[in-house]
Amino acid sequence: MGATALGIQLAYVISAALFIFGLKLLGSADTARKGNLLSAVGMLLAIVAALLDQGIVEFQWIMAGMLLGGVIGAGAARLVQMTSMPEMVALFNGFGGMASLLVGAAALGAGDNNTFILVTIVLSILIGGLTFTGSLVAYGKLSERIGSGAVTFRGQQVVNSLLVMAILGSAVMFCLQPENSQWLYAIIALSLLFGVMAVIPIGGADMPVVISLLNSYSGLAACAAGFAIHNNILIVAGSLVGASGIILTQIMCKAMNRSLSNVLFSGFGGVTSSETVVEGEIKPISVEDAFYILEAASSVVIVPGYGMAVAQAQHVVKEFALLLEKNGCEVNFGIHPVAGRMPGHMNVLLAEADVPYDQLLEMDEVNPRMENVDVAIVIGANDVVNPAAREVESSPIYGMPVINVDKARTVFVLKRSMASGFAGIENPLFYKENTRMLFGDAKESIAGLVRELS
Amino acid sequence: MDAVFLTFILMLSIFLGFELIYKVPATLHTPLMSGANAISGITVVGAIGLAGTGQHDIAQWLGAGAVALATINVVGGYMVTDRMLAMFKKRGK
Questions:
Q1: Where are the domains of chain B?
Q2: What is the pLDDT at residue B12?
Q3: 3-state secondary structure string, chain B?
Q4: Which numeric CATH code is attached to A287-453?
Protein backbone atom coordinates (compact mmCIF):
# COMPACT_ATOMS: atom_id res chain seq x y z
CA MET A 1 0.00 0.00 0.00
CA GLY A 2 1.51 3.33 -1.08
CA ALA A 3 1.58 6.45 1.08
CA THR A 4 -1.36 8.02 -0.74
CA ALA A 5 -3.47 4.90 -0.49
CA LEU A 6 -2.71 4.69 3.21
CA GLY A 7 -3.61 8.35 3.67
CA ILE A 8 -6.92 7.81 1.88
CA GLN A 9 -7.77 4.87 4.14
CA LEU A 10 -6.93 6.91 7.23
CA ALA A 11 -9.11 9.76 5.99
CA TYR A 12 -11.95 7.24 5.65
CA VAL A 13 -11.43 6.17 9.24
CA ILE A 14 -11.69 9.78 10.42
CA SER A 15 -14.79 10.44 8.35
CA ALA A 16 -16.43 7.29 9.75
CA ALA A 17 -15.72 8.63 13.24
CA LEU A 18 -17.26 11.96 12.25
CA PHE A 19 -20.41 10.22 10.97
CA ILE A 20 -20.74 8.29 14.22
CA PHE A 21 -20.16 11.35 16.36
CA GLY A 22 -22.54 13.38 14.21
CA LEU A 23 -25.31 10.81 14.61
CA LYS A 24 -24.69 10.78 18.35
CA LEU A 25 -25.11 14.55 18.55
CA LEU A 26 -28.27 14.30 16.44
CA GLY A 27 -29.80 12.56 19.45
CA SER A 28 -30.50 15.80 21.31
CA ALA A 29 -32.18 18.94 20.01
CA ASP A 30 -29.53 21.21 21.54
CA THR A 31 -26.63 19.59 19.73
CA ALA A 32 -28.37 18.27 16.63
CA ARG A 33 -27.31 21.08 14.33
CA LYS A 34 -23.68 20.64 15.30
CA GLY A 35 -24.04 16.91 14.76
CA ASN A 36 -25.32 17.40 11.24
CA LEU A 37 -22.43 19.75 10.52
CA LEU A 38 -19.89 17.22 11.82
CA SER A 39 -21.39 14.55 9.64
CA ALA A 40 -21.18 16.90 6.63
CA VAL A 41 -17.50 17.54 7.40
CA GLY A 42 -16.99 13.78 7.47
CA MET A 43 -18.60 13.52 4.05
CA LEU A 44 -16.45 16.31 2.64
CA LEU A 45 -13.33 14.60 3.96
CA ALA A 46 -14.35 11.28 2.39
CA ILE A 47 -15.01 12.96 -0.97
CA VAL A 48 -11.68 14.79 -0.96
CA ALA A 49 -9.90 11.56 -0.05
CA ALA A 50 -11.66 9.74 -2.87
CA LEU A 51 -10.56 12.41 -5.34
CA LEU A 52 -6.90 11.85 -4.36
CA ASP A 53 -7.06 8.25 -5.54
CA GLN A 54 -4.27 7.62 -8.04
CA GLY A 55 -6.53 5.55 -10.22
CA ILE A 56 -8.30 8.75 -11.23
CA VAL A 57 -6.83 10.22 -14.38
CA GLU A 58 -9.72 12.31 -15.56
CA PHE A 59 -11.66 14.78 -13.45
CA GLN A 60 -14.03 16.52 -15.84
CA TRP A 61 -16.84 13.97 -15.60
CA ILE A 62 -16.57 13.79 -11.84
CA MET A 63 -16.74 17.56 -11.61
CA ALA A 64 -19.63 17.76 -14.06
CA GLY A 65 -21.57 15.19 -12.05
CA MET A 66 -20.87 16.91 -8.75
CA LEU A 67 -21.76 20.32 -10.11
CA LEU A 68 -25.03 19.11 -11.57
CA GLY A 69 -25.96 17.13 -8.46
CA GLY A 70 -24.90 19.94 -6.14
CA VAL A 71 -27.00 22.56 -7.93
CA ILE A 72 -30.09 20.34 -8.00
CA GLY A 73 -29.65 19.24 -4.38
CA ALA A 74 -29.03 22.75 -3.05
CA GLY A 75 -31.94 24.17 -5.02
CA ALA A 76 -34.34 21.52 -3.79
CA ALA A 77 -33.17 21.88 -0.18
CA ARG A 78 -33.71 25.64 -0.19
CA LEU A 79 -37.03 25.69 -1.99
CA VAL A 80 -38.89 22.75 -0.47
CA GLN A 81 -41.78 23.58 1.83
CA MET A 82 -41.75 21.94 5.23
CA THR A 83 -45.11 20.32 4.52
CA SER A 84 -43.50 18.60 1.53
CA MET A 85 -40.56 17.13 3.47
CA PRO A 86 -41.83 13.53 3.23
CA GLU A 87 -41.91 13.61 -0.56
CA MET A 88 -38.49 15.18 -0.77
CA VAL A 89 -36.89 12.65 1.55
CA ALA A 90 -38.54 9.91 -0.52
CA LEU A 91 -37.11 11.36 -3.71
CA PHE A 92 -33.61 11.73 -2.24
CA ASN A 93 -33.77 8.14 -1.02
CA GLY A 94 -34.56 7.11 -4.56
CA PHE A 95 -31.57 8.98 -5.99
CA GLY A 96 -29.30 7.33 -3.43
CA GLY A 97 -30.66 3.94 -4.45
CA MET A 98 -30.15 4.63 -8.16
CA ALA A 99 -26.57 5.79 -7.50
CA SER A 100 -25.85 2.48 -5.75
CA LEU A 101 -27.39 0.57 -8.64
CA LEU A 102 -25.13 2.38 -11.10
CA VAL A 103 -22.04 1.81 -8.96
CA GLY A 104 -22.90 -1.87 -8.68
CA ALA A 105 -23.36 -2.20 -12.43
CA ALA A 106 -20.16 -0.27 -13.15
CA ALA A 107 -18.19 -2.38 -10.67
CA LEU A 108 -18.82 -5.39 -12.89
CA GLY A 109 -16.39 -4.06 -15.47
CA ALA A 110 -13.82 -3.06 -12.86
CA GLY A 111 -11.87 -6.27 -12.42
CA ASP A 112 -11.64 -9.60 -10.69
CA ASN A 113 -15.11 -11.04 -10.34
CA ASN A 114 -15.18 -13.87 -7.87
CA THR A 115 -18.52 -15.20 -6.67
CA PHE A 116 -18.50 -13.04 -3.55
CA ILE A 117 -18.09 -9.85 -5.59
CA LEU A 118 -20.78 -10.99 -8.02
CA VAL A 119 -23.24 -11.63 -5.22
CA THR A 120 -22.62 -8.17 -3.75
CA ILE A 121 -23.03 -6.62 -7.20
CA VAL A 122 -26.41 -8.35 -7.51
CA LEU A 123 -27.39 -7.09 -4.06
CA SER A 124 -26.45 -3.50 -4.76
CA ILE A 125 -28.36 -3.55 -8.04
CA LEU A 126 -31.36 -5.26 -6.49
CA ILE A 127 -31.63 -3.08 -3.37
CA GLY A 128 -30.68 0.08 -5.26
CA GLY A 129 -33.22 -0.60 -8.00
CA LEU A 130 -36.12 -1.34 -5.71
CA THR A 131 -35.24 1.67 -3.57
CA PHE A 132 -35.32 3.85 -6.67
CA THR A 133 -38.69 2.86 -8.09
CA GLY A 134 -40.19 2.26 -4.64
CA SER A 135 -39.23 5.79 -3.66
CA LEU A 136 -40.63 7.22 -6.87
CA VAL A 137 -43.98 5.54 -6.20
CA ALA A 138 -43.86 6.77 -2.59
CA TYR A 139 -43.07 10.25 -3.90
CA GLY A 140 -46.03 10.06 -6.27
CA LYS A 141 -48.36 8.95 -3.48
CA LEU A 142 -47.14 11.55 -0.98
CA SER A 143 -47.34 14.43 -3.42
CA GLU A 144 -50.71 13.09 -4.61
CA ARG A 145 -49.50 12.97 -8.18
CA ILE A 146 -50.87 9.46 -8.19
CA GLY A 147 -53.69 8.16 -6.00
CA SER A 148 -52.47 7.75 -2.45
CA GLY A 149 -54.65 4.76 -1.66
CA ALA A 150 -53.51 1.16 -1.66
CA VAL A 151 -53.57 -0.55 -5.04
CA THR A 152 -54.47 -4.20 -4.69
CA PHE A 153 -55.65 -6.69 -7.25
CA ARG A 154 -56.54 -10.34 -7.37
CA GLY A 155 -53.49 -12.57 -7.60
CA GLN A 156 -51.11 -9.84 -6.43
CA GLN A 157 -49.28 -12.18 -4.12
CA VAL A 158 -48.89 -14.76 -6.86
CA VAL A 159 -47.44 -12.12 -9.18
CA ASN A 160 -45.08 -10.92 -6.45
CA SER A 161 -43.94 -14.45 -5.64
CA LEU A 162 -43.23 -15.10 -9.31
CA LEU A 163 -41.30 -11.85 -9.43
CA VAL A 164 -39.15 -12.86 -6.45
CA MET A 165 -38.45 -16.23 -8.04
CA ALA A 166 -37.53 -14.58 -11.33
CA ILE A 167 -35.11 -12.29 -9.47
CA LEU A 168 -33.53 -15.22 -7.65
CA GLY A 169 -33.26 -17.17 -10.91
CA SER A 170 -31.60 -14.33 -12.78
CA ALA A 171 -29.28 -13.68 -9.84
CA VAL A 172 -28.08 -17.27 -9.88
CA MET A 173 -27.65 -17.22 -13.66
CA PHE A 174 -25.76 -13.94 -13.44
CA CYS A 175 -23.31 -15.36 -10.91
CA LEU A 176 -22.77 -18.42 -13.12
CA GLN A 177 -22.37 -16.48 -16.37
CA PRO A 178 -21.20 -12.95 -15.50
CA GLU A 179 -20.00 -12.40 -19.06
CA ASN A 180 -23.52 -12.80 -20.42
CA SER A 181 -24.95 -9.34 -19.88
CA GLN A 182 -28.58 -10.32 -20.48
CA TRP A 183 -28.80 -11.59 -16.89
CA LEU A 184 -27.54 -8.24 -15.65
CA TYR A 185 -30.24 -6.42 -17.61
CA ALA A 186 -32.84 -8.89 -16.34
CA ILE A 187 -31.88 -8.20 -12.72
CA ILE A 188 -31.99 -4.44 -13.25
CA ALA A 189 -35.42 -4.59 -14.92
CA LEU A 190 -36.87 -7.00 -12.37
CA SER A 191 -35.62 -5.04 -9.37
CA LEU A 192 -37.08 -1.83 -10.78
CA LEU A 193 -40.41 -3.60 -11.28
CA PHE A 194 -40.22 -5.10 -7.81
CA GLY A 195 -39.88 -1.63 -6.23
CA VAL A 196 -43.13 -0.55 -7.87
CA MET A 197 -44.95 -3.74 -6.90
CA ALA A 198 -43.73 -3.49 -3.31
CA VAL A 199 -45.02 0.02 -2.68
CA ILE A 200 -48.31 0.21 -4.61
CA PRO A 201 -50.26 -1.98 -2.14
CA ILE A 202 -49.37 0.32 0.76
CA GLY A 203 -51.87 3.02 1.64
CA GLY A 204 -51.12 6.65 2.37
CA ALA A 205 -51.55 6.37 6.13
CA ASP A 206 -48.77 3.78 6.23
CA MET A 207 -46.31 6.05 4.46
CA PRO A 208 -44.23 6.76 7.61
CA VAL A 209 -43.30 3.07 7.65
CA VAL A 210 -42.52 2.99 3.94
CA ILE A 211 -40.28 6.06 4.04
CA SER A 212 -38.38 4.68 7.02
CA LEU A 213 -37.92 1.38 5.26
CA LEU A 214 -36.78 2.96 1.99
CA ASN A 215 -34.37 5.08 4.02
CA SER A 216 -32.95 1.89 5.42
CA TYR A 217 -32.71 0.33 1.96
CA SER A 218 -30.83 3.29 0.54
CA GLY A 219 -28.23 2.72 3.25
CA LEU A 220 -28.08 -1.01 2.66
CA ALA A 221 -27.71 -0.43 -1.09
CA ALA A 222 -24.69 1.81 -0.40
CA CYS A 223 -23.38 -0.90 1.88
CA ALA A 224 -23.72 -3.57 -0.82
CA ALA A 225 -22.02 -1.26 -3.31
CA GLY A 226 -19.21 -0.89 -0.76
CA PHE A 227 -18.72 -4.67 -0.77
CA ALA A 228 -18.76 -4.71 -4.57
CA ILE A 229 -15.94 -2.17 -4.87
CA HIS A 230 -14.15 -3.05 -1.60
CA ASN A 231 -14.66 0.27 0.08
CA ASN A 232 -14.83 0.34 3.88
CA ILE A 233 -16.37 3.78 4.26
CA LEU A 234 -19.33 2.79 2.08
CA ILE A 235 -19.90 -0.26 4.24
CA VAL A 236 -19.68 1.65 7.53
CA ALA A 237 -21.78 4.66 6.49
CA GLY A 238 -24.28 2.52 4.60
CA SER A 239 -24.88 0.17 7.49
CA LEU A 240 -25.28 3.07 9.95
CA VAL A 241 -28.06 4.42 7.73
CA GLY A 242 -29.50 0.95 7.25
CA ALA A 243 -29.68 0.42 11.00
CA SER A 244 -31.23 3.84 11.61
CA GLY A 245 -33.94 3.22 9.02
CA ILE A 246 -34.74 -0.17 10.50
CA ILE A 247 -35.15 1.32 13.97
CA LEU A 248 -37.45 4.07 12.72
CA THR A 249 -39.46 1.44 10.84
CA GLN A 250 -39.82 -0.56 14.02
CA ILE A 251 -40.90 2.50 16.03
CA MET A 252 -43.52 3.36 13.39
CA CYS A 253 -44.87 -0.20 13.31
CA LYS A 254 -45.11 -0.29 17.09
CA ALA A 255 -46.97 3.02 17.06
CA MET A 256 -49.57 1.45 14.78
CA ASN A 257 -49.63 -1.88 16.64
CA ARG A 258 -48.95 -3.72 13.41
CA SER A 259 -46.22 -6.01 12.25
CA LEU A 260 -44.01 -4.98 9.39
CA SER A 261 -45.33 -7.78 7.18
CA ASN A 262 -48.88 -6.61 7.86
CA VAL A 263 -47.99 -3.09 6.68
CA LEU A 264 -46.15 -4.35 3.62
CA PHE A 265 -48.58 -6.94 2.36
CA SER A 266 -52.09 -6.28 3.61
CA GLY A 267 -53.16 -3.23 1.61
CA PHE A 268 -54.67 -1.84 4.80
CA GLY A 269 -55.48 1.60 3.37
CA GLY A 270 -57.88 0.03 0.91
CA VAL A 271 -59.88 -1.94 3.44
CA THR A 272 -63.37 -0.54 3.69
CA SER A 273 -64.62 0.26 7.16
CA SER A 274 -65.75 -2.62 9.28
CA GLU A 275 -69.16 -2.45 10.88
CA THR A 276 -68.96 -0.66 14.16
CA VAL A 277 -72.21 0.51 15.68
CA VAL A 278 -71.64 3.99 16.99
CA GLU A 279 -74.11 5.46 19.42
CA GLY A 280 -74.75 9.11 20.16
CA GLU A 281 -75.03 12.08 17.91
CA ILE A 282 -72.80 14.62 16.29
CA LYS A 283 -72.81 17.95 18.10
CA PRO A 284 -71.50 20.80 15.98
CA ILE A 285 -70.25 24.00 17.57
CA SER A 286 -69.73 27.49 16.21
CA VAL A 287 -66.45 29.39 16.41
CA GLU A 288 -68.07 31.81 18.83
CA ASP A 289 -69.23 29.12 21.26
CA ALA A 290 -65.85 27.42 21.03
CA PHE A 291 -64.26 30.72 21.99
CA TYR A 292 -66.36 31.00 25.17
CA ILE A 293 -65.25 27.55 26.30
CA LEU A 294 -61.60 28.27 25.45
CA GLU A 295 -61.65 31.59 27.24
CA ALA A 296 -62.51 29.81 30.49
CA ALA A 297 -60.05 26.95 29.94
CA SER A 298 -56.87 26.77 32.01
CA SER A 299 -55.27 23.86 30.21
CA VAL A 300 -55.42 23.02 26.51
CA VAL A 301 -53.80 20.24 24.50
CA ILE A 302 -53.61 20.55 20.75
CA VAL A 303 -53.33 17.32 18.77
CA PRO A 304 -52.29 17.98 15.17
CA GLY A 305 -52.43 15.54 12.28
CA TYR A 306 -51.78 15.46 8.57
CA GLY A 307 -54.81 17.71 8.02
CA MET A 308 -52.91 20.57 9.68
CA ALA A 309 -50.12 20.12 7.16
CA VAL A 310 -52.54 20.04 4.24
CA ALA A 311 -54.27 23.20 5.43
CA GLN A 312 -50.84 24.84 6.10
CA ALA A 313 -52.35 25.84 9.43
CA GLN A 314 -49.20 25.58 11.60
CA HIS A 315 -48.51 29.33 11.72
CA VAL A 316 -52.02 30.31 12.70
CA VAL A 317 -52.04 27.47 15.24
CA LYS A 318 -48.92 28.96 16.82
CA GLU A 319 -50.59 32.38 16.99
CA PHE A 320 -53.65 30.75 18.54
CA ALA A 321 -51.51 28.99 21.18
CA LEU A 322 -49.77 32.26 22.07
CA LEU A 323 -53.08 34.04 22.60
CA LEU A 324 -54.33 31.24 24.83
CA GLU A 325 -51.14 31.44 26.87
CA LYS A 326 -51.56 35.19 27.22
CA ASN A 327 -55.00 34.41 28.59
CA GLY A 328 -53.34 32.41 31.39
CA CYS A 329 -53.91 29.01 29.84
CA GLU A 330 -51.34 26.22 29.72
CA VAL A 331 -50.96 25.02 26.13
CA ASN A 332 -49.22 21.83 25.05
CA PHE A 333 -49.11 19.86 21.87
CA GLY A 334 -49.66 16.11 21.86
CA ILE A 335 -47.78 14.43 19.03
CA HIS A 336 -48.56 10.90 18.00
CA PRO A 337 -45.56 9.04 16.53
CA VAL A 338 -47.33 8.37 13.23
CA ALA A 339 -49.12 11.71 12.88
CA GLY A 340 -48.34 13.05 9.43
CA ARG A 341 -46.63 11.27 6.59
CA MET A 342 -43.18 10.66 8.02
CA PRO A 343 -41.69 10.17 11.48
CA GLY A 344 -41.52 13.52 13.28
CA HIS A 345 -43.39 15.38 10.52
CA MET A 346 -45.58 17.39 12.94
CA ASN A 347 -42.58 18.41 15.03
CA VAL A 348 -40.86 19.95 12.03
CA LEU A 349 -43.99 21.82 10.95
CA LEU A 350 -44.51 23.27 14.41
CA ALA A 351 -40.82 24.12 14.71
CA GLU A 352 -41.19 26.01 11.44
CA ALA A 353 -43.98 28.02 13.05
CA ASP A 354 -41.64 28.78 16.00
CA VAL A 355 -43.34 26.52 18.52
CA PRO A 356 -40.61 25.61 21.06
CA TYR A 357 -39.83 21.91 20.98
CA ASP A 358 -40.27 21.45 24.72
CA GLN A 359 -43.93 22.34 24.27
CA LEU A 360 -44.38 19.27 22.08
CA LEU A 361 -45.22 16.24 24.19
CA GLU A 362 -44.97 12.65 23.06
CA MET A 363 -47.99 10.41 23.37
CA ASP A 364 -46.75 8.72 26.56
CA GLU A 365 -46.23 12.07 28.24
CA VAL A 366 -49.53 13.59 27.26
CA ASN A 367 -51.89 10.68 27.94
CA PRO A 368 -51.50 10.58 31.74
CA ARG A 369 -52.34 14.29 31.95
CA MET A 370 -55.40 14.08 29.73
CA GLU A 371 -57.92 13.87 32.57
CA ASN A 372 -56.83 17.29 33.85
CA VAL A 373 -57.08 18.93 30.46
CA ASP A 374 -59.99 21.30 29.95
CA VAL A 375 -60.02 21.31 26.18
CA ALA A 376 -58.31 18.95 23.73
CA ILE A 377 -58.29 20.34 20.21
CA VAL A 378 -57.87 17.86 17.36
CA ILE A 379 -56.65 19.55 14.20
CA GLY A 380 -56.76 17.37 11.10
CA ALA A 381 -56.04 14.13 12.96
CA ASN A 382 -58.37 11.18 12.98
CA ASP A 383 -57.08 7.66 13.41
CA VAL A 384 -54.43 8.63 15.98
CA VAL A 385 -57.15 9.89 18.37
CA ASN A 386 -59.70 7.17 17.63
CA PRO A 387 -60.95 5.65 20.92
CA ALA A 388 -62.10 2.58 18.96
CA ALA A 389 -58.47 1.48 19.18
CA ARG A 390 -59.08 0.99 22.91
CA GLU A 391 -62.75 0.10 23.00
CA VAL A 392 -63.89 -1.71 19.88
CA GLU A 393 -62.28 -5.12 19.56
CA SER A 394 -63.54 -5.62 16.03
CA SER A 395 -61.97 -2.39 14.82
CA PRO A 396 -59.07 -2.79 12.38
CA ILE A 397 -57.00 -0.45 14.52
CA TYR A 398 -57.84 -2.16 17.82
CA GLY A 399 -54.76 -2.20 20.04
CA MET A 400 -53.02 0.72 18.36
CA PRO A 401 -51.84 3.20 20.99
CA VAL A 402 -53.74 6.48 20.54
CA ILE A 403 -53.83 9.87 22.20
CA ASN A 404 -56.79 9.66 24.58
CA VAL A 405 -58.33 13.04 23.80
CA ASP A 406 -61.77 11.71 24.74
CA LYS A 407 -60.63 11.70 28.39
CA ALA A 408 -60.29 15.49 28.39
CA ARG A 409 -63.23 17.48 29.78
CA THR A 410 -64.11 18.81 26.33
CA VAL A 411 -62.86 17.82 22.89
CA PHE A 412 -63.01 20.05 19.84
CA VAL A 413 -62.55 18.27 16.55
CA LEU A 414 -61.70 20.51 13.61
CA LYS A 415 -62.80 18.72 10.52
CA ARG A 416 -63.80 19.55 7.01
CA SER A 417 -66.73 17.16 6.81
CA MET A 418 -67.90 13.87 8.26
CA ALA A 419 -65.89 11.72 5.83
CA SER A 420 -63.92 9.02 7.64
CA GLY A 421 -60.13 9.19 8.00
CA PHE A 422 -57.40 7.92 5.78
CA ALA A 423 -57.82 4.36 6.92
CA GLY A 424 -61.58 4.54 6.29
CA ILE A 425 -62.45 3.66 9.87
CA GLU A 426 -65.44 5.06 11.70
CA ASN A 427 -64.41 7.24 14.64
CA PRO A 428 -66.64 7.00 17.75
CA LEU A 429 -64.85 10.05 19.17
CA PHE A 430 -67.10 12.30 17.07
CA TYR A 431 -70.18 10.92 18.80
CA LYS A 432 -68.97 11.18 22.40
CA GLU A 433 -70.84 13.20 24.98
CA ASN A 434 -67.96 15.66 25.49
CA THR A 435 -67.04 16.10 21.81
CA ARG A 436 -67.93 19.17 19.77
CA MET A 437 -67.33 19.31 16.03
CA LEU A 438 -66.02 22.52 14.54
CA PHE A 439 -66.68 22.01 10.86
CA GLY A 440 -64.80 23.87 8.14
CA ASP A 441 -61.26 24.44 6.90
CA ALA A 442 -58.91 24.01 9.87
CA LYS A 443 -56.94 27.13 9.03
CA GLU A 444 -60.06 29.29 8.78
CA SER A 445 -61.56 27.89 11.97
CA ILE A 446 -58.38 28.61 13.93
CA ALA A 447 -58.10 32.04 12.33
CA GLY A 448 -61.68 32.68 13.49
CA LEU A 449 -60.73 31.71 17.04
CA VAL A 450 -57.66 33.94 16.84
CA ARG A 451 -59.89 36.88 15.88
CA GLU A 452 -62.18 36.18 18.83
CA LEU A 453 -59.28 35.88 21.26
CA SER A 454 -57.41 39.00 20.23
CA MET B 1 -10.36 -13.52 4.03
CA ASP B 2 -11.19 -10.08 2.71
CA ALA B 3 -14.87 -10.93 2.64
CA VAL B 4 -14.80 -12.04 6.27
CA PHE B 5 -13.05 -8.84 7.27
CA LEU B 6 -15.61 -6.66 5.48
CA THR B 7 -18.51 -8.62 6.97
CA PHE B 8 -17.00 -8.06 10.39
CA ILE B 9 -17.02 -4.30 9.80
CA LEU B 10 -20.62 -4.56 8.62
CA MET B 11 -21.74 -6.36 11.74
CA LEU B 12 -20.07 -3.89 14.10
CA SER B 13 -21.44 -0.82 12.34
CA ILE B 14 -24.98 -2.19 12.32
CA PHE B 15 -24.84 -2.70 16.08
CA LEU B 16 -23.34 0.76 16.52
CA GLY B 17 -26.13 2.22 14.38
CA PHE B 18 -28.79 0.59 16.54
CA GLU B 19 -27.21 1.91 19.72
CA LEU B 20 -26.90 5.44 18.35
CA ILE B 21 -30.39 5.77 16.90
CA TYR B 22 -32.41 4.26 19.75
CA LYS B 23 -31.70 7.31 21.88
CA VAL B 24 -32.96 9.86 19.38
CA PRO B 25 -36.23 11.46 20.61
CA ALA B 26 -39.32 11.45 18.37
CA THR B 27 -39.08 15.24 17.92
CA LEU B 28 -35.95 14.77 15.86
CA HIS B 29 -37.04 11.85 13.71
CA THR B 30 -37.50 13.85 10.51
CA PRO B 31 -34.09 15.59 10.69
CA LEU B 32 -32.54 12.28 11.69
CA MET B 33 -33.99 10.66 8.63
CA SER B 34 -32.89 13.35 6.23
CA GLY B 35 -29.47 13.49 7.90
CA ALA B 36 -29.12 9.73 7.56
CA ASN B 37 -30.26 10.09 3.98
CA ALA B 38 -27.40 12.50 3.34
CA ILE B 39 -24.97 9.96 4.80
CA SER B 40 -26.32 7.29 2.46
CA GLY B 41 -25.04 9.55 -0.33
CA ILE B 42 -21.62 8.11 0.62
CA THR B 43 -22.02 6.12 -2.60
CA VAL B 44 -20.52 9.23 -4.22
CA VAL B 45 -17.12 8.11 -2.91
CA GLY B 46 -17.40 4.85 -4.80
CA ALA B 47 -18.80 6.56 -7.87
CA ILE B 48 -15.87 9.03 -8.02
CA GLY B 49 -13.40 6.19 -8.47
CA LEU B 50 -15.46 4.74 -11.32
CA ALA B 51 -16.10 8.07 -13.09
CA GLY B 52 -12.43 9.03 -13.29
CA THR B 53 -10.86 5.98 -14.89
CA GLY B 54 -10.46 7.80 -18.21
CA GLN B 55 -11.43 4.65 -20.12
CA HIS B 56 -14.49 6.21 -21.77
CA ASP B 57 -16.33 2.94 -21.45
CA ILE B 58 -19.83 2.36 -20.18
CA ALA B 59 -18.60 1.91 -16.58
CA GLN B 60 -17.27 5.44 -16.59
CA TRP B 61 -20.57 6.92 -17.77
CA LEU B 62 -22.46 4.92 -15.20
CA GLY B 63 -20.03 6.21 -12.58
CA ALA B 64 -20.54 9.82 -13.68
CA GLY B 65 -24.31 9.39 -13.45
CA ALA B 66 -23.91 7.91 -9.98
CA VAL B 67 -21.76 10.87 -8.93
CA ALA B 68 -24.52 13.29 -9.95
CA LEU B 69 -27.31 11.36 -8.23
CA ALA B 70 -25.38 10.74 -5.04
CA THR B 71 -24.32 14.40 -4.88
CA ILE B 72 -27.98 15.46 -4.99
CA ASN B 73 -28.46 13.19 -2.01
CA VAL B 74 -25.45 14.54 -0.11
CA VAL B 75 -25.84 18.27 -0.76
CA GLY B 76 -29.64 18.31 -0.58
CA GLY B 77 -29.74 16.06 2.47
CA TYR B 78 -27.29 18.04 4.58
CA MET B 79 -28.70 21.42 3.58
CA VAL B 80 -32.32 20.57 4.26
CA THR B 81 -31.42 18.94 7.58
CA ASP B 82 -29.58 22.07 8.62
CA ARG B 83 -32.53 24.20 7.54
CA MET B 84 -34.87 22.12 9.67
CA LEU B 85 -32.63 21.99 12.72
CA ALA B 86 -32.17 25.75 12.64
CA MET B 87 -35.92 26.04 13.30
CA PHE B 88 -35.92 23.94 16.46
CA LYS B 89 -35.97 26.29 19.43
CA LYS B 90 -36.42 25.93 23.14
CA ARG B 91 -39.07 27.79 25.09
CA GLY B 92 -38.10 31.34 26.02
CA LYS B 93 -35.28 31.70 23.52
A1: 26-85
A2: 92
A3: CHHHHHHHHHHHHHHHHHHHHHCCCHHHHHHHHHHHHHHHCCHHHHHHHHHCCCCCCHHHHHHHHHHHHHHHHHHHHHHHHHHHHCCCCCCCC
A4: 3.40.50.1220
